[in-house]
Structure prediction request, 72 residues.
Amino acid sequence: MPRYEYRCRTCGDTFELSRPMAESAAPAACPMGHDDTVKLLSTVAVGGSSAAAPAPGPASGGGGCCGGGCCG
Prediction:
């Protein structure tokens, strides 16, 4: 089940809730009981490096249907 992060506008507390995606926009009370909360945008970190695999250029021979010359 996804976890969503919220911040209370009354006390400033930040907290997380696990809830179904269908309920992600539903109101959430903070642990102190305040109802004035907002859902925060989460960032997702993806590992990897673009330098490990250079992009194919026109002299690389291509690949796939249109890059390999099978379309015609």
User: Anything to note?
Assistant: Residues 53 and 61 are 16 Å apart (CA to CA).
